[in-house]
User: What shape does this take?
Amino acid sequence: MRTRTSHSQTEPPLFKRLRVKLRAGVPLSIKVITCQGAIDDVTLAFSHDENMWCEIYGREIYPNQEDTILTWFQSFADKKPISTQNLRLNFEPLPPFTASALKAISAVPFGGTETYSGIAAAINNPKAVRAIGGACHHNPFPLIIPCHRIVSKQDIGGFAYSLKMKQLLLDFEN
Assistant: This one.
């Protein structure tokens, strides 16, 4: 798991707050880590069955946080995407370039794709094509910020997870 923040030894450990089956037929497990009311990290893995699952972990509970997160992931699983504006994403630890690239990537619609060079142009840095790939690789919010929708001009490009998972997500959305 990619961890971006360090927590002191005195903080209580993470605990699983919730595990929900979102959809049958898509072997994907989504793990959401929350911290201080914001989403701190999302990780993906193939599930052990043919179901899409969402697990939420955290140290504290904030009002409506779980419902907001689950509503967003359920709408994704139902192929009826909704805005991410109600999700609090922790961009603080990210370098400014990565944050601006991820914000541009978040504009790529469900079922659509964009090229690495297209995102570089969108942030007014057309020579930063490889850096866009790096920002995608270090995206702490996969699915919410859909780096799987960013492709090369020749093929589907790379992915922080596996290319098999990237293809699964692209096929799921289309």
Notes: Strands lie at 15-24, 28-35, 38-46, 51-58, 114-115, 150-151. The longest helix spans residues 65-77. The first strand starts at residue 15 and ends at 24.
